[in-house]
DNA sequence: TACCTCGGACAGTCAACATC
DNA sequence: ATGTTGACTGTCCGAGGTAG
């Protein structure tokens, strides 16, 4: 074998055309990071590469699902407070603009109210994201693939590099505009057939936590 | 043995802030 | 206008668990 997934992250991907960032971490570990991991690797929190399909997807025979994950827009307008000038050695010189008061979390609340809805995120993805505001226990989110009628011309003119399972389209493909939840689509309701969490044999469902019951403290 | 699961460290990006 | 800084966001390392 060339590599084992057990050491998935330890793959150096010698054949991958990755030449984006080659940084040396403080631990002396070469840390190469791609700009955009594919959805499979992203969900599995595993190393991806620039190739499509990526090595990992190829290895598991999921090259058809190997598409770039959608990056969500960075939140804008967030206040940051005064800067702490540094002397170049990491030592904070002074807080420009404001007196050197103790950093009091209570009183230094951001001037902007907590934004209930940032821009969009993938709930439960790699256990990093909370459930979306407005999430209801009954709401069902579907990752990435959405079963939809296939346009007549679809599949004919499509590049071979981006082939999707029959009748399956990436959610992002279905949305002509930026939507709050790029990779998850709220179930449109009964009568509309959707892929029940499309997954190939040995599919990647890693890092996707089921919705936890909201704390009863919620009113 | 191979793959999955998961928490968290690491790293890149970018807009607000500071200064000229 | 330009540089600096902080925070946000994404990637994936690595240990532990599970199944064949
Ligand atoms: Zn990948
Ligand atoms: Zn992939």
From TrEMBL:
Keywords: DNA-binding, Metal-binding, Nucleus, Transcription, Transcription regulation, Zinc
One Gene Ontology MF term: DNA-binding transcription factor activity, RNA polymerase II-specific
PROSITE patterns assigned: ZN2_CY6_FUNGAL_2
InterPro entries hit by this protein: ERT1_acuK_gluconeogen_tf, Zn2-C6_fun-type_DNA-bd_sf, Zn2Cys6_DnaBD
Annotated Basic residues bias: 72-83
Region of interest (Disordered), residue spans: 72-112
Zn(2)-C6 fungal-type domain residues: 37-66
Domain of life: Eukaryota
The protein's name: Transcription activator of gluconeogenesis ERT1
Source organism per UniProt: Mycena maculata
Lineage of the organism: Eukaryota, Fungi, Dikarya, Basidiomycota, Agaricomycotina
